[in-house]
Amino acid sequence: MALISFTLVGLAQNPTIDSLWQAVENATTIAEQVDESNYLAEQYQDIEPREAIEISRTALSLATRINYTEGIFYALNNLGTAYDGIGQGDSAYFFFVKAQELGVELGDEYAMSVVKNNFGLYYLFQGNYPLALKYFQESLVSINEPGYYMDPVVTYNNIGVIHQEQGNLDKAIEYFQKAGDASFESDDKPFAYLCYGYIAQLKEDHSSALSFYNEALNIYREAHDDMHTGESLYYMGECYLGMQDYDRAKAVLDTSLQIYHRLGMVPDEVEIYRALASVYEAEGNNDEALKLYHQAAELGLESEMNTLLVPIFKALARQYALKQDYRAAYDYQLRYQELNDNIYDNTTKERIAQLEHSYELEFNKAERDRLQAEKDKRDAVVRQRTVVAAGSTVVTILLAVLLVVYYRANRQKKVINKVLETKVKQRTAELELVNNKLLVSNSELEHVNNKLLESNEELERFTYIASHDLKEPLRNITSFINLIQRKVGEKADEELEEYMDYVIRNTRQMYTLIDDVLNFSRIAALEVRGTKYIELNVLMIDVEATLSRTIAEKNAELEVDTLPVIQAHNTHVFMLLKNLIENGLKYNESPQPRVKISYREEGDFYRFSVEDNGIGIDPVYHEQIFEMFKRMNTRDKYDGTGIGLATCKKIVTKYGGEIGIRSEEGKGSTFYFTWPKPQPQEELI
């Protein structure tokens, strides 16, 4: 378990909870009550995440009532952070998306840095390290913007986690050191001790690590900070395990587990169960180790955090092999290998190296720009002093002239004002009558508008929550079918195997359908504003990484021309290109499928083409394929939900473009779409 950090506050900034509750109660306005509640919820993230959820919901309700955008943003962000902390990834993602939309609207760099860090955490736990690193780096860029300040400890720390998980210990230690130094400078000494202890632990200097952890533990206990107390105990347990002091390891890990169980922080419980299992395995008590690994796996599957499951599946495969239960060992080895390949493949490492290099270049450029700006400022001060000295005489003369003019104008103004006063009184009476009528109409319109906003929010919330509630039983069905298959084993007859395969295939299809409908609804809800400039060739690296397994399995070739910069939401363009490329690979029976992406300029638009050598589509169906749930092939031949191309059309038309197809059956397809050329802007994202 690495030092993954959730919140953006340290111990030195945490006042007592009682005083914060008092501040909420003493608030004189609703906006002030919202601000104090949001701050209180931040502190509860480390103490009682479920209480943080309740406080944040209250703040969200109050802020929505008075249309307080900033208060709504921080309430949504707190909800996402709290749900992430207890392992409910779907709910966390929903609230982060809503917070991001408001952050763009606010134009607040601090707010965007907060939400980008949290998106980074979400993708970190999902095992998508390139996206996680990208968001963490963007968070650091926002932190370094002039006029804003935020403690970078959390972001430095989490970037270190990514490099550690990828096996780059030198780079990981570099970022953990930055996190520790920044913590010490901001007077958050206990977290600095945790960072320094973790660095010593990575270097296998367990004695020094324990010394640092004890320093942190004493401070956290004195401050009644349960979350960080549990964290300190966990790292001490890992150290004792490394020193083969198994009794002490079990004692501190048991105490840590009790704390996290009471707090309801599922991801941390998973890691402690895994650590305890490792202790029992090292002692040779494999029965107890197997039991604890299974408890860790069950909680890990519940939390939907892929990175936690990799070492657990590997350990379960090892344990079952020791018991000579080779069928179960093989099953867990496959699950480990599949998950491990998704997270730790070479493409991921290359992408992380590219992102790290790009960030260092950008950071160095920003530092040079800052120094140049300081020099320009000093030069401007010198020039200003020269101009002031030369112009002081002129100003004195002008003041004398202006005084004479002012005296004459003021005398004339008094005469005119008397005439205007009479006319103003008459006009005011007329306007009051009109205003009274408008107030009634505005009140009615505001009431209707509020009702519509409430309905839209309820519909969006229903879509997200319904999708989560639908996914859960599907996961349970799949798990039970897998369990039945393992239990029946070779005793199953052919008919039963066919039935079970049918159930698994259809639950997988339903799960994909829910995801596609959810993506479609997100696009429909998000307004085209707050867009940024996107370098498409950089984005294509992410698209290709996502589709790398499909490309490898089908021996496919992806050819990408030099593409332009466009203006959009990154998520929209990623989804559009991924769907079109995936379509060309899926409906393709060629020995070597080929997909080519190119573009040309057409006036104020770019015209993009995605060409494949697949099975092609009869011209009769060219209009129908962009409708929802329209499929030209049966599911027994090609998987799919019939929503992908409808989603593409929704994205393109939302940005003012058009989409179409040129194709004949058996001769491949070329999907084309137009996109407006961007407005000039200095910064490219």
Automatic annotation (TrEMBL):
User: Transmembrane ranges?
Assistant: 387-407
The Histidine kinase domain extends over 465-679
Determine the domain of life of the protein's source.
Bacteria
Q: Which SUPFAM superfamilies match?
A: ATPase domain of HSP90 chaperone/DNA topoisomerase II/histidine kinase, Homodimeric domain of signal transducing histidine kinase, TPR-like
Which GO molecular function, any one, fits this protein according to its record?
phosphorelay sensor kinase activity
> What's the EC number here?
2.7.13.3
Give one Pfam hit by family name: TPR_12
The family database entries (PROSITE patterns) matched by this protein are listed as:
HIS_KIN, TPR
Q: Where are the TPR repeats?
A: 153-186, 270-303
Report the leader peptide range: none
Q: Which reaction does it catalyse?
A: ATP + protein L-histidine = ADP + protein N-phospho-L-histidine
The record's top EC class is transferase
Identify the keywords attached in UniProt to this record, alphabetized: Kinase, Membrane, Phosphoprotein, TPR repeat, Transferase, Transmembrane, Transmembrane helix
Q: What is this protein called?
A: histidine kinase
